[in-house]
Amino acid sequence: MQRDIIKERVFRLAKEVTEKMTVQVEDVEILGQKGRLTVRVIIDSPEGVSIRDCELVSRQLEALLDIEDPIPGSYTLEVSSPGLDRPLKSIKDFQRFTGKMARIITKEKIENQTFMIGWIRGVEGEDIILQTKKKTIRIPFEVIEKANLEVEF
């Protein structure tokens, strides 16, 4: 069975589990090889995610997965939060984390670079405004290859 189909089914079931909770499903990842898959469900909440939240979602989702059986063979289920260095995958993520530090890698050069670290100053249309130590950079969202929050100490 295709990974995309498994991912879609697990995502739907995880959403069903979290509907009445204070957390929502951010992403589902299917890792490993057939027969030894790891199914990782990432949950999040504006208030943050506790170990208890992960445990509750894991138990309920595990029961639902046993009934629905969308994954052929054996697998390991992991439920976790996005972490301190969470990925930024949408414009909405950049809006939500305005003021936070981010690490951005672009598909093409922006002001002669493809790697930037700075503070998210906001979103204007389809552009991310990033303030580095030296200057403000406007990054079109469509050229972002990868972006994560950067842990500040």
Fold and architecture overview:
With 153 residues, the protein is of the alpha+beta class. The protein has helices at 3-18, 51-68, 91-96; strands spanning 24-33, 36-44, 75-80, 101-110, 113-124, 127-131, 136-140, 144-149. It folds into two domains: 3-80, 2-Layer Sandwich (GMP Synthetase, Chain A, domain 3); 91-149, SH3 type barrels (Roll), CATH 2.30.30. A hairpin with a 2-residue loop joins strand 1 (24-33) and strand 2. Helix 1 crosses helix 2. It is elongated, with a radius of gyration of 18 Å.
Brief account:
By secondary structure, the chain is an alpha+beta fold. The protein has helices at 3-18, 51-68, 91-96, and strands at 24-33, 36-44, 75-80, 101-110, 113-124, 127-131, 136-140, 144-149. A five-stranded antiparallel beta sheet has the order 7-6-5-4-8.
The portion of residues forming beta strands comes to 35-45%
Q: How far from one another are the termini?
A: 44 Å
Alpha-beta classification = alpha+beta
What sort of overall outline do the alpha carbons produce when their principal axes are compared? elongated
Kindly give the count of domains. 2
Rg, nearest Å: 18 Å
CATH topology of the largest domain: GMP Synthetase, Chain A, domain 3
CATH class of the largest domain: Alpha Beta
Low-confidence stretches: none
Side by side, the strands of the main sheet go 7-6-5-4-8
What is the CATH homology-level superfamily of the largest domain? RimP-like superfamily, N-terminal
Overall average residue pLDDT: 92
Order of helices and strands: HEEHEHEEEEE
